[in-house]
Amino acid sequence: MSVVLNRLGEIRPSLTGDKTQLLRSSVSGKSEIKAAKKEKIEVTKTDIASGFLIAGSFYALSCLFGNYILPDIGGVIIHPYAYLIAFLTLANVFKLIPRRFCEGTKILSKFITDSMGPMCFAGIGIAITDFGEFMAAITLQNLFVTFMIILGIAIGAAVLGWVVGFYPVDSAIIVGLCCANRGGSADVVLLGATDRMELMPYAQVLSRLGGAVVLALSSAVFAAMF
């Protein structure tokens, strides 16, 4: 499905961007994009190290809240990833983190994703996969249901993405398919096949956010039913 969407973007360039951004230039403004590209910050090793320290601090704070301070709200268990996303979102909205540290973190993330990601995620994916159960699950009925679910997710993400100002092809891939795969290892395969590795941070946030939402809703439903 991702390869088909990528091919669709190549045939109809108006449906996709430059494979590094989700927001349409007609919405954000081409002048703003050009201005942002001109504002290059020369990142130093100190900035990269500071970004790594900040990321680790936010993760530690999220684990502290998720496991000890406020593990649940009204009986609904809040996963540390949900806290992590909430804290990072607030920090970004209120611009609490200097931009040079953000750029340093981006470089570190790109290095890990490009250099170590495929190797680590492939190894993890192979290690946690029960190939016996996987082969047993491959039936015509399961394949049809899976295909229809993925098709619905892709179309829904493309339409809603267009409404809020995203490129439909990129929205279908990042917002739709990355939320319907197996997580980090599948994100690498999917984005690598569509030449959109620059969008990995979005895919990771969406995977974690989707998982956190599912965990929160599941906790609420099971708490109410059982």
From TrEMBL:
Q: Which Pfam families match?
A: 2HCT
Q: Molecular function (GO) terms listed?
A: organic anion transmembrane transporter activity
One GO CC term of this entry? Answer: membrane
Tell me which UniProt keywords the record has, alphabetically: Membrane, Transmembrane, Transmembrane helix
Annotated TM spans: 48-70, 76-97, 118-138, 144-167, 205-225
Tell whether Protease is among the UniProt keywords. Answer: no
Q: What name does UniProt use for this protein?
A: 2-hydroxycarboxylate transporter family protein
